[in-house]
Amino acid sequence: MDLGSLIGVVGALAMMLLGVIVGGSGIGTYADLPSLLIVVLGSWFCFMASSSIGSAIGIFKIMGLTFSVPNLGEKGIVVKLMAFSDKARREGLLALEEELEDLDDEFMKKGLRLVVDGTDAAIVRDLLEIEVSQMQERHAKKIGGLNMWAALAPGFGMLGTVIGLIAMMKNLEDKASVGPNMAVALITTLYGSMIANWLLTPIIAKLRTNDSRESQVREMIIEGILSIQAGDNPRILGMKLVAYLSAEDRKEVEQQLNS
């Protein structure tokens, strides 16, 4: 569980609710079913029209990814690649074949399999970079869907405002309807802004960060695999790979390697 995302989203909502309470208004004042239908479901169905039913339903699963921490295991990857490098230098590249079956990382396994099979380094890099590019394309498509919804929600908020104002203006004689219609007019704008700024925009930013991190890890694996193929000294390989790590992880790995 990504506590930062959870605490951030819940904390932001709590501050808005606290502001409402401190301001002297009841929370019920800001609860309006017609506004909710116009903004949330209206913008969601419009997003469906721009993509597909599967994408519209699957967007909630994508949003859920924000609250899980991707376990990429950067430190373990560095140590593992250095061990492979050491074994390849001592016993040859073919000796790595017996290690591949127990390897959980399919991307690393594919790259090392190409190396063991004697594939040219340029081809190995091209094939693995295509994998990275396609992964980024898949991520961009998911993030693009959230961007679309984030763009639609405020627009539907304004649409609800117009609907409420029209209803209010046509029934000015009925004083009892002025309040509810004005509520729809204003609360839909509030809901649209909340969906876009409180929920979707932070989720988009977090997914972009996760995509960048995963891409960086795969680039690190590519460099490690090509270094193994070139027969680099394991310590030289380690110096290349720790450059991809954060300062804290780098220090921990360096201590482990020097121990």
Task: Describe what you observe in this structure.
This protein is elongated. The longest helix has 56 residues, at 175-230. With 259 residues, it is mainly α. It contains ten helices and no strands. The chain has helices at 3-22, 33-50, 53-64, 74-91, 97-100, 106-116, 121-170, 175-230, 234-242, 247-258. The protein has one domain (32-259). Helix 4 (74-91) packs parallel to helix 8 (175-230) and helix 8 (175-230) runs antiparallel to helix 9 (234-242).
* Helicity range: over 70%
Low-confidence stretches: none
Give a quick account of the main beta sheet: strands, pairing sense, barrel closure.
none
Cα distance spanning the termini: 32 Å
Structural class: mainly alpha
Topology order in helix (H) and strand (E) letters: HHHHHHHHHH
Overall mean pLDDT score?
A: 87
Number of alpha- plus pi-helical segments: 10
How many domains in all? 1
SS strand fraction:
under 5%
> In one word, what is the shape?
elongated
Computed over alpha carbons, the radius of gyration is 26 Å
Q: How many strand segments?
A: 0
